[in-house]
Amino acid sequence: MYPFIRMVKGLIMVRGETPLGIFDTHVSHHICWPWDIDLWMELNNGRTLTLYDLGRIPLASRVGLIDVLRRKGWGLTMAGVSVRYRRRVRTFDRVEMRSRCVGWDDKFIYLEQSMWRQGECANHALYRSAVTDRNGIVAPDTVLAALDRPFEARPLPDWVQAWIAADATRPWPPQI
User: Fold this and answer.
1) Average pLDDT of 46-56?
2) HSE-up (13 A, CA, CB side) for residue 86
3) By C-alpha distance, which of 151, 103, 153 is closest to 128?
4) Which of 19, 35, 107, 157 has an alpha carbon 20 to 30 Å from 176's alpha carbon atom?
5) CA distance 104 to 141
6) Of 58, 64, 52, which is closest to residue 12 (Cα–Cα)?
7) Domains contained in the chain, CATH given
């Protein structure tokens, strides 16, 4: 089941926090509960992606994106992800999650998230996200202009550009 209560708690907790700039990092803390684990008694890889929502949505709230989405009637979707798992997260482990925007291109906004346990990175994700309306994807420049806050665009990091290029070579739809 989706962790609705945890999400609401996370959104309530960030209400009074200082707003973040577009490239600032949102830090949150989470516990790996028994319902988050798999047969090997560690954080399930699919659940990891769900828990990353608990960092991404509050990040969107702190940069002002949630208010813009509501005002404009837009939606937010994930259009791709690459995850690297390096350390186990076991039941009752506490993790620090770091979530931030790394940049955008003409269609997508790229987000980086990581979970840290005892000072070591347990896993790291790169997300391709999109804001949508009835007609499809809303250009990131339009979304960022709607935030009505000053920011300075940055080029995407080389490793993000390499991921975008590699993903573009992948056949779609997949071959049967």
Assistant:
1) 96
2) 12
3) 103
4) 107
5) 9
6) 58
7) 4-167 (3.10.129.10)
Tens digit of pLDDT for each residue in 65-115? 999 999 999 999 999 999 999 999 999 999 999 999 999 999 999 999 999
Q: Give me the residue label for tokens 């269609």.
A: 107
> What are 29's strand-pairing partners?
96
State the average pLDDT over residues 46-61.
96
CA distance 81 to 146: 25
Residue 1's pLDDT is 81
- Rounded to whole angstroms, how far apart are CA atoms 152 and 27? 22
Residue type at position 142: T
Which residue's structure tokens are 């702190």? Answer: 62
Would you say the pTM of this structure is higher than 0.90? yes
CA distance 106 to 114: 25
**Contact between 60 and 104 (Cβ < 8 Å):** no
